[in-house]
Amino acid sequence: MYPDHDTTLLPEYRAPRPRASRARAEVDARTCGMTCMSALAEMLRQLFAARQSRAADTLMDRCSREALEKLLSESSAFMGARVRYAVEDRLRHRKPQLDDTALPTIRAIASVLNAWLHDGRRMAIRAVLRELSDEELKELSTLPELNDEVATMTGDFAGGNAP
């Protein structure tokens, strides 16, 4: 953060916890296998580059332990040393109760995309969307908590498959 910015005016990087419903459970069942590792790595890289380490910590807390471990095992060169260290440190100090409330990775990504849209960081949104596969883009665009403008942006990368 820059010293001239008031941190009390920044938006929260927390998506409201959705109500349990049958439709939401169906979406969770579909998205559970989608790991989005490249997009998660790019999002963490973007967050640390923008000096938003608190938002990065919140994102890592929302992801499951398995997703973070998979991120470390899959993409090492792409993440960079800073992001790699932060993920390892977060895993080392992770509280067990966080795994009970972990979201599917695509939902954790959606909450940060909404916050970025509010901040006007459309280039960062596009950089993350570029890393998602067509299936992941389609699922992301159908998430009910995703902002309509972000859902529309997914169509630029899905080849017209997303709304």
Structure description:
It is a single chain. The protein contains nine helices and no strands. It is mainly α. It has one domain (35-158). Helix 2 (37-49) crosses helix 4 (65-74), helix 3 (53-62) runs antiparallel to helix 6 (105-119) and helix 4 (65-74) packs antiparallel against helix 5 (81-92). The chain is globular and about 40 Å long. The N and C termini lie far apart (35 Å). Residues 21-25 and 27-34 have low confidence and may be disordered.
What value does the average pLDDT take?
79
Shape: globular
Helix fraction by DSSP (H/I, runs of at least 4): 55-70%
Q: In total, how many domains does the architecture comprise?
A: 1
Low-pLDDT segments: 21-25, 27-34
The string of secondary-structure elements, in order, is: HHHHHHHHH
User: In angstroms, what separates the terminal alpha carbons?
Assistant: 35 Å
- Name the beta content range: under 5%
Number of helices: 9
Keywords:
9 helices; mainly alpha; 163 residues
How does the SSE layout of this entry go?
Blueprint: H1 22-31, H2 37-49, H3 53-62, H4 65-74, H5 81-92, H6 105-119, H7 122-129, H8 134-142, H9 148-158
Give a concise summary.
The chain has helices at residues 22-31, 37-49, 53-62, 65-74, 81-92, 105-119, 122-129, 134-142, 148-158.
